[in-house]
């Protein structure tokens, strides 16, 4: 039935597209016809994928919604591969086919400079530095971290990613002027206010979802209109709830998996800034926003697939398809950045930044070796030593009462005598 339904939908869509093409006279514009043909091809592929692709772990609001984003992931990955195989000039000019205003070099905005919170030299507005930093990215930071918290479902991991990204901005501000911010912009506005408040609201939402009763009733079985409207709203909440317990220190496998998740998150965050830098896209362009919306939808599915694979590897024997696509997309974006502007990426880090990162890596490796290798060896040695001491104590306790015979042997002999009498 599903295949027949798919063929029917594809047939209707193909006929509709062909009918529209026949009705209008084909314009003699190669660029316009190319874009129209590409869009029609993508629509047909999305229609096929929405009805035929494999279902993911989420079923609300509808499995077709998540199949749609899976197909969008494939289309986006193919687009990135196409951009990767172009020359730098052709790739940047190709963006003009999407938006004629693109393909023009744009200056990066520097958020550093004057870092005085209260500027006495400006009598009309002494807090002008603070107001200047309050742009559209402040609510974007808040909602972004609210949604990331819903994806990760762990306070510690969210805070680690938030703080580490600020350290990355400190480390890479010599490459991108956009990373140059005031200290209070880094730690007060970003980490505490925007990111921290978003994480707090996200954790409160997770707490509410974990306490909610998941008992569903059909829409037409609800007698009141108020109940029907409430049921429609709850259709956009999860069908059931799974609490994420990452437990990174429980095993080496989980520790490496959590480190990999944090690394991919940070790389995807950096790709946001570096992609718009190398492809000449302004920060407020709708393509940047669409990419963030895309990652919000596919990231939640990928995190659930990763957690299922880690938590129950016997049932989930391989990593989910959306998780693989997200990893491939992140890697391809990074390859585009490397190809389009290798000079910026190869700018050497300041010496003190290099020292800090080397020290941090050494500390992480040292803790990993101690927690999963040295500590286990030490615990096993202590356990063996304790068992030997207990065995020796029992042996000494079981020594004879002075004539060299063991009390245990006497008891055994007594048992044998009783058996003979019986």
From TrEMBL:
Transmembrane segments: 6-24, 36-53, 65-85, 155-172, 184-203, 255-274, 286-303, 323-340, 352-373
Keyword Endoplasmic reticulum attributed: yes
GO molecular function: L-serine-phosphatidylethanolamine phosphatidyltransferase activity
Any one GO cellular component localisation term in the record: endoplasmic reticulum membrane
Keyword NAD: no
EC number: 2.7.8.29
EC supergroup of this enzyme: transferase
Catalytic activity line of the entry: a 1,2-diacyl-sn-glycero-3-phosphoethanolamine + L-serine = a 1,2-diacyl-sn-glycero-3-phospho-L-serine + ethanolamine; 1-hexadecanoyl-2-(4Z,7Z,10Z,13Z,16Z,19Z-docosahexaenoyl)-sn-glycero-3-phosphoethanolamine + L-serine = 1-hexadecanoyl-2-(4Z,7Z,10Z,13Z,16Z,19Z-docosahexaenoyl)-sn-glycero-3-phosphoserine + ethanolamine; 1-(1Z-octadecenyl)-2-(5Z,8Z,11Z,14Z- eicosatetraenoyl)-sn-glycero-3-phosphoethanolamine + L-serine = 1-(1Z-octadecenyl)-2-(5Z,8Z,11Z,14Z-eicosatetraenoyl)-sn-glycero-3-phospho-L-serine + ethanolamine; 1-hexadecanoyl-2-(9Z-octadecenoyl)-sn-glycero-3-phosphoethanolamine + L-serine = 1-hexadecanoyl-2-(9Z-octadecenoyl)-sn-glycero-3-phospho-L-serine + ethanolamine
Pathway: Lipid metabolism; Phospholipid metabolism; phosphatidylserine biosynthesis
UniProt superkingdom: Eukaryota
Pfam name, any one: PSS
Protein's job: Catalyzes a base-exchange reaction in which the polar head group of phosphatidylethanolamine (PE) is replaced by L-serine.
Family stated for the protein in its record: Belongs to the phosphatidyl serine synthase family.
The protein, known as: Phosphatidylserine synthase
Lineage: Eukaryota, Metazoa, Chordata, Craniata, Vertebrata
């Amino acid at each position: 039935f599903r295949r027949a339904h798919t063929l029917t939908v594809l047939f209707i869509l193909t006929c509709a597209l062909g009918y529209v093409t026949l009705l209008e006279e084909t314009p003699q514009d190669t660029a316009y016809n190319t874009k129209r043909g590409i869009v029609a091809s993508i629509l047909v592929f999305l229609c096929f994928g929405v009805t035929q692709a494999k279902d993911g772990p989420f079923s609300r609001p509808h499995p077709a919604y998540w199949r749609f984003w899976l197909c969008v992931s494939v289309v986006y990955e193919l687009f990135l591969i196409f951009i990767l195989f172009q020359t730098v000039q052709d790739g940047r000019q190709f963006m003009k086919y999407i938006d004629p205003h693109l393909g023009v070099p744009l200056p990066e905005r520097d958020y550093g400079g004057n870092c005085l919170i209260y500027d006495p030299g400006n009598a009309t507005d002494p807090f002008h530095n603070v107001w200047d930093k309050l742009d559209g990215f402040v609510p974007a930071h808040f909602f972004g971290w609210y949604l990331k918290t819903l994806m990760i479902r762990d306070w510690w991991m969210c805070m680690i990613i938030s703080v580490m990204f600020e350290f990355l901005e400190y480390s890479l501000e010599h490459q991108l002027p956009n990373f140059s911010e005031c200290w209070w912009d880094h730690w007060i506005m970003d980490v505490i206010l925007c990111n921290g408040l978003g994480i707090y609201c996200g954790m409160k939402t997770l707490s509410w979802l974990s306490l909610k009763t998941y008992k569903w009733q059909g829409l037409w079985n609800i007698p009141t209109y108020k109940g029907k409207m409430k049921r429609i709203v709850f259709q956009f909440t999860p069908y059931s709830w799974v609490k994420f317990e990452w437990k990174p220190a429980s095993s080496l496998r989980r520790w490496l998996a959590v480190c990999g998740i944090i690394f991919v998150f940070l790389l995807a965050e950096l790709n946001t800034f570096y992609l718009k830098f190398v492809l000449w896209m302004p920060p407020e362009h709708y393509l940047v926003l669409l990419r963030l919306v895309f990652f919000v939808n596919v990231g939640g599915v990928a995190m659930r697939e990763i957690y299922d694979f880690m938590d129950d590897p016997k049932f989930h024997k391989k990593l989910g398809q959306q998780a693989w696509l997200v990893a491939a997309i992140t890697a391809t974006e990074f390859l585009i950045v490397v190809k389009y502007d290798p000079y910026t990426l190869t700018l050497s880090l300041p010496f003190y930044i290099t020292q800090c990162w080397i020290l941090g890596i050494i500390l992480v490796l040292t803790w990993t070796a101690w927690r999963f290798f040295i500590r286990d060896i030490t615990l096993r040695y202590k356990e063996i030593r304790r068992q030997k001491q207990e065995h020796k104590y029992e042996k000494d306790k079981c020594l004879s009462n002075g004539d060299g015979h063991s009390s245990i042997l006497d008891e055994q002999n007594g048992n044998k005598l009783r058996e003979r009498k019986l």
